[in-house]
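During the first year of the project, the team set up a workflow for recording each protein of interest as an amino acid sequence followed immediately by a discrete structure-token representation. This format lets reviewers and collaborators read both layers of information side by side without switching files. As required by the reporting guidelines, we include two representative entries from the current panel. The first entry is reproduced here exactly as it appears in our internal archive.
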Amino acid sequence: MARQMPPLNPLRAFEAAARLLSFTRAAEELFVTPSAVSHQVKVLEDTLGVPLFSRLGKSLALTPSGRAYLPEVQRAFKQLAQATQRLQAAELPVLRINVPPTFAVKWLIPRMARFMTSNPSIDLKVSTSAKMVDFAREDIDLAIRYGRGQYAGLRAERCLSVEVFPVCSPKLMHGAHPLRRPEDLRHHTLLHDDSTYTDASNPDWAMWLQHAGVTDVDAARGPSFWPSYLVINAAVDGLGVALAKKNWVTQELADGRLVRPFDTSLPVEYGYYVVYPEERADDPTIATFTEWMRAEVAADDAQA
């Protein structure tokens, strides 16, 4: 007699509910209703003949059987995802990358033509998000992330270092309160990058002003924007002075749409990292992309 295989949809519902310990949150992730998740889990329990969850009022907990089953189910899903990735890579060389929005707009897209010219056999599929992707569950091959490069179970290579400095429209260099010294910022609107990075090392106006030795400017005032490229656009339009990452304003400075009113620059511990699963370290498509990035960064550094 053939071994009975549990149905796939109930397995997906179980994995999400067990990982999140919530039918409601699992339903949001799977784009179904909580009752549908509950029903699918019940189908799986009936199929297996064992309870997987203890339901106590509104709380949800795994039974011993559920705790033992969960890692095996997750391992099976991961193996299935990897097998699919290998099959697709063999049939069609596509590299699916996920990057922060401003990295895509200000660094990757302006350079993509060069990658496409030198690697015509690889199609890039680019998506953006601010959070770390789950490589086991999402159809992503490689990600770019801003942080310290500490990602458990993943290989991380620093690709861009970061420094920040104020930038503004050239017209703010003149007028009733021209920008000559950092202290002159008290007469101007500060534009804030409201990116969701909560680590204390992430740069903000308070850190830059302290670094510049300025004590009489309110670092909290002024409008905030997210993603970061909106802060840069606001500065180009003359709304105020932005604290910008060097790599994001290279073209605007070269074109004269932005200027640096002061020379003071603040180096940042954080950086941008190429991140991918350890088991993909020998993937030739990933290797091609990372080598191309290294070459691009080296060319930028040589021109600086």
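The second entry, processed by the same pipeline in the following quarter, appears below.
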Amino acid sequence: MANRVLLLIFVATTFALAIAFEPSPLQDFCVADPASSGWRNSTLNTTYDKFELYIIATRLNGHACLDSKLAIAEHFSFKGLHLAGNTSNPQGSKVTPVNVVHIPGLNTLGISLARIDYAPFGVVAPHTHPRATEILTVLEGTLQVGFVTSNPNNQLITKVLQKGDVFVFPVGLVHFQRNVGGTGKSAVSISALSSQNPGVITIANAVFGSNPAIPRDILAKAFQLDKSTVSNLQDQF
């Protein structure tokens, strides 16, 4: 009886792990179907060079497939990643994502991409990707990167990267990037992520900019701050 219980626990655990990540596709590809996936077609033309996605209702892990006989090369390509992002913002950085919204042929393939531009001393604030591991490559400049391990250690693992260096941010862990190249020196990196829809949770935005707001007394106690400081922080977001 004990062995049978252990076997059931093992099977249940294995099954849970198997469904925790995006499944392997059972066909060559599954181009996201504009007609059935909630794509708004006001900006959609015959060459499929621009898409806007509005999720009406999610009933599957991904989007419904277009008839494979209707697939064209534009479903699998994206133009513009060579263009620098606008970093004139308080963070001094710009993320240009390339995911299933931009390449419908990525649907069910479990990968996506992002270009990140950094102004001098620009940062990508601490954030997490709840559904993806990220591997970052520096194309230009010098970046300090790092992530924090989970409780109870909360160890900071950080490194300064030069052009051509690569760094991995494990799935779900808080991480950041900062341009440390110096005055007048911009930086560029490119990231690959192990999900077609990795998601982003920016820590400061989530904590101090939630809608509706987290009660100030909770944040004051959690961060050992007075309520007026919490109020000021919430106003920033």
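For the second entry, the following points were noted during internal review. Confidence is low (pLDDT under 50) at residues 5-20, 39-59. The chain has two domains: 1-199, 201-236. Both points are flagged for discussion at the upcoming steering committee meeting.
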